[in-house]
Amino acid sequence: MTDAPRAAARRAGRGGRARRRVTVTSVLGELLLTAGVVVLLYVAWQMWIGDIIMSAAANDKGQSISAQWAKDPAPALPAEIDDGSGVDGARPRYEPPVMTAPEDGAPWGALMRVPRWGADYAVTIAGGVTRPDTLDHGWIGVYPGSGMPGQVGNLSMAAHRTTWGKPFNQLDRLRLNDAIVIETEQGWYTYRFRTLEYVTPDSVDVLDPVPQEPDPAAAGAPGGRYITLTACSPLYSLAERIVAYGVFESFQPRALGAPDSLKAVS
C-alpha cells in the first residue's frame, strides 16, 4: 500500500469517528432552539418569577410607607359623628376626611390593605388606570371621576390580575364582609366586601356613583359611600372584567391606632 492510501485510511479510521458536517440548516436549527428557550424563560419571568419579585417589592414598599406614617406625629382627630353611636361606652365614630383626587400616573399617598390577601399586603394606590402610566408600575389605579375615600359616591379602582405584581390576583377569593382598607397618613377607611360580578369590558356602569343601581333616584337609593374594584377576567385574558363591590363601614383616625378591620382572617 502506498503512502497516500495509508494516510487516507488513518484519517478515516482515527477513533472510529466521522467528522460532523456543519450546514446552514443545522446552524439555523440551533439558533431557533436557543431563541425558543429564551422566549420561554421570558414568559416564565413575566407570568411567575417576575410577579413574585415585583409583588414582594411592592408590599415591602407599602409596609415601609405605613411604618413611616406610624412614626410621624398623628394628625388631629376629626369631628365625631353625632349619631348616638358613642353613648354607653361604645367607641365614637369620626367624620372621614375627604381626600383630593390623585394626579394621573402619580402615587396618591394611600395604600390598600386586604387581610384576606395576607398581613403583608400593602399596595400603593395611584391616579389613572392606563397601563404605561399606572398599572404597569404594579400600582392600583383610581379611575378618573371616581368618588374619593370619605366622600359620598363610588371609589372606583383597577389593577392587574396577572403580571406586573398582580395586585388584584385574588379578587375572586374575597368573602362576604371581608375588609378592604384604604390606609393614609390620616388614618384608615374600612369598606366591607359585598358581592362579585362578571361583566363585558364596555360595562362602564359599574363605576356609577351607586353601583348596580341604574336609576338611584327612581329606586329611592340613598347616597352612600361605596368601593368598586375591577380587573381582567379570566386569568391571562381580556375577554371580561371581574368586579368586586363593597360598602363603607368606618374611618379610624391614626391617633387611635390601627382598626380591628386589619386583623388577620382565617
Folded structure, characterized:
The protein has an eight-stranded mixed beta barrel. 24% of the residues lie in helices and 24% in strands. It has helices at 3-13, 24-71, 216-219; strands at residues 107-113, 123-127, 140-142, 153-158, 179-184, 187-199, 225-233, 240-253. The chain has one domain: Sortase (Sortase, Chain: A). With 266 residues, it is an alpha+beta fold. The mean pLDDT is 85.
At the fold tier of CATH, the topology name is: Sortase, Chain: A
CATH superfamily: Sortase
Any idea what the radius of gyration is?
28 Å
Percent strand equals 15-25%
DSSP strand tally = 8
Which structural class do the helices and strands define? Answer: alpha+beta
What features would you highlight for this structure?
266 residues; alpha+beta; Sortase, Chain: A; eight-stranded mixed β-barrel; 3 helices; 8 strands
What's the helix and strand layout?
Blueprint: H1 3-13, H2 24-71, E1 107-113, E2 123-127, E3 140-142, E4 153-158, E5 179-184, E6 187-199, H3 216-219, E7 225-233, E8 240-253
Parallel strand pairs: 2-3, 4-7
Antiparallel strand pairs: 1-2, 1-5, 3-4, 5-6, 6-8, 7-8
Summarize the model shown.
With 266 residues, the chain is an alpha+beta fold. The chain has helices spanning 3-13, 24-71, 216-219; strands at 107-113, 123-127, 140-142, 153-158, 179-184, 187-199, 225-233, 240-253.
